[in-house]
Specification:
Helix content: 25-40%
Order of helices and strands: HEHEHEEHEHHHEHHE
CATH superfamily: Vaccinia Virus protein VP39
Number of helices: 9
Length: 251
């Protein structure tokens, strides 16, 4: 399993659609119905887009303290450039060693980040440790096992083999969270739809998905050629996309 070097994609990371499609977090809304003061932690916060968006969404709707940890200095440098609000505290740290005391947070989220954890079981244990009782842990992630027709996997097949090593299956993820101590629920959504090849080509050329930096430059270029060859005879392609929404409650 290869590691992602985010310094390779720091210039285009924020152009990813996933970084812009951020809505008000329903779990924060739910917690605010019972508590007016919350501490929120984003583990693997990247360039801080989630934190900055949520801070804007919930401004004036309770006393919320915002925190993030991120192991990539390159990502945090972008956050520092883009963030002009000192109400968000971000630290350089790994998920396996969260630099906060026990029972500190009401809500912890991993937004497309848990698959980067070097030791997932240890990281989940750390998240459990820093959560207060009745705290909520939410993961937002893809599920490669149900999306073999993803455009990335269709045209860059080596990426699929890498992702199977990085992502847990739904059953394994459920059991691991449960073993950690969480009362766990997982929602799965699978989508099948057509997408234009032109939009896929444009997105692939950005190479701003961490997945596309797990493969060699030769493998990447072969994928670009495969897209161009497919486009000669097809304007669109049928693709699959699968997402998991695990929630862990600390009783």
């Amino acid at each position: 399993m290869r590691d992602t070097n985010y310094s390779n994609i720091e210039d285009t990371y924020n152009e990813s659609k996933a970084q812009h499609n951020i809505n008000p977090d329903v779990h924060i809304k739910g917690l605010l119905q019972h508590k007016k003061a919350l501490r929120v932690l984003d583990v693997g916060c990247g360039t801080g887009n989630y934190l900055m968006k949520q801070q804007q969404f919930f401004e004036g709707r309770g006393q919320i303290e915002w925190f993030g940890i991120e192991p990539s200095e390159a990502m945090l440098e972008i956050f520092q450039k883009n963030n002009d609000n000192d109400s968000i505290t971000v630290k350089l740290a790994e998920a396996e060693a969260i630099p906060f005391e026990d029972n500190y947070f009401d809500y912890v989220i991993c937004n497309h980040s848990y698959h980067h954890f070097t030791d997932k079981e240890k990281a989940f244990g750390e998240i459990y440790r820093v959560l207060q009782k009745k705290g909520v842990y939410h993961i937002n992630t893809i599920h490669p096992y149900d999306m073999k027709k993803s455009w990335v996997y269709q045209f860059f097949p080596d990426v699929y083999q890498e992702d199977i090593l990085r992502f847990y299956s739904m059953d394994t993820l459920f059991r691991t969270l449960e073993t950690t101590g969480f009362d766990t629920k997982i929602e799965k959504r699978v989508y099948t739809y057509r997408r234009s090849m032109k939009s896929i080509q444009e997105e692939a050329k950005l190479r701003n998905y961490s997945q596309l930096h797990l493969i060699s430059d030769v493998e990447y270029e072969n994928g670009i050629i495969a897209i161009e060859n497919f486009m000669q005879f097809n304007k669109s392609v049928l693709i699959e996309h699968a997402k998991l929404y695990p929630i862990g409650f600390k009783s």
